[in-house]
């Protein structure tokens, strides 16, 4: 029975898409790692909780086959912010995060610390003391 579960998870991993733009944050890659960890001995792995394993497989299979997307169709492919799917993918891509990191490095240590730990931006100037 364990061999059947292992083969089902392997098939699911093959079908699950990978998004190369999300290095280190891709769900497909994470799923593959978890399956490799859970089935370290391959088909000979003894599963401590077979019911929970089957539930996880069923849930992942429903997500992969778009059951919920078909059951609850969206009127528009935007969010409440009005950002389109393409814009969202661009913002979440690794290249956008690399650009933000480069901008942080260019600012310098002092400005970065000031922005993080103060409620006012450093460009606003020094705060005046209240008069008594």
Low-pLDDT regions: none
Helicity, as a percent range: 55-70%
Taken as a percent bin, the fraction of beta residues is under 5%
Helical stretch tally: 7
Question: Strand-and-helix sequence, N→C?
Answer: HHHHHHH
Total strand segments: 0
Tell me the structural class: mainly alpha
User: What is Rg?
Assistant: 24 Å
Largest sheet: none
How far is it from the N-terminal to the C-terminal residue, by CA? 80 Å
Quick check: average pLDDT?
Answer: 78
Task: Using the alpha-carbon principal axes, give the shape.
Answer: extended
Describe, in plain words, how this protein is organized in 3D.
It is a single chain. The relative contact order is 0.09. The chain is built from seven helices and no strands. 58% of the residues lie in helices and 0% in strands. With 132 residues, it is an all-alpha fold.
């Amino acid at each position: 029975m364990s061999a059947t579960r292992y083969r089902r998870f392997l098939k699911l991993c093959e079908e699950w898409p990978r998004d190369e733009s999300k290095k280190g944050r891709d769900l497909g890659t994470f799923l593959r790692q978890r399956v490799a960890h859970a089935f370290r001995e391959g088909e000979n792995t003894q599963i401590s909780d077979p019911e929970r394993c089957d539930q996880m497989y069923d849930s992942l299979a429903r997500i992969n086959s778009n059951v919920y997307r078909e059951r609850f169709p969206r009127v528009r492919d935007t969010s409440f912010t009005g950002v389109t799917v393409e814009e969202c993918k661009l913002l979440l891509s690794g290249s956008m995060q690399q650009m933000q990191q480069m901008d942080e490095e260019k600012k310098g240590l002092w400005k970065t610390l000031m922005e993080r730990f103060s409620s006012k931006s450093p460009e606003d100037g020094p705060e005046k003391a209240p008069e008594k």
